[in-house]
Specification:
The structure is a single chain. By secondary structure, the chain is of the alpha+beta class. The chain has 4 helices and 7 strands; from the N terminus they run H-E-E-E-E-H-E-E-E-H-H. The chain has a 4-stranded mixed beta sheet. The chain has a 3-stranded antiparallel beta sheet with strand order 3-4-5, with no helix packed on it.
């Protein structure tokens, strides 16, 4: 996805990530932005995983990140297919290294009545 202007704070940050099959595989925790003085800043990657929670949420985020294993995943922006109510990706979660936390809790969540809605 390139060439389109969007408000990243409103339409990308903290949004759900969906892989090519529509599988939930995490959230956009942060973004990697490049561009020097006089250049137009450009989003180059989505950053997700517990390792990125600390800088955004202080002590509580660092604690949650530690409990979550501190894992960090960098998804190139070129892997974004569409930005809508969720950020849709071009490839599967496993190929991109995403969804491991969701995979661990999915068996428990599936037992909660109404969780599949």
């Amino acid at each position: 996805m390139s060439g389109k202007e969007i408000d990243i704070g409103l339409h990308v940050l903290d949004h759900q990530l969906l892989d090519k099959d529509g599988r939930r595989c995490g959230n956009v925790d942060d973004l990697a932005i490049e561009g020097g003085v006089g250049e137009v800043p450009e989003v180059v990657a989505i950053l997700c995983g517990p390792g990125y929670w600390g800088p955004r949420a202080g002590l509580l985020g660092r604690l949650a990140g530690w409990i979550g294993g501190g894992r960090r995943v960098r998804v190139p922006w070129s892997e974004v297919r569409k930005v809508d109510s969720a950020v849709e990706l071009k490839r599967g979660a496993t190929e991109l290294g995403l969804g491991r936390g969701d995979d661990r809790v999915r068996p428990y969540m599936d037992k909660i009545p109404g969780a599949g809605r």
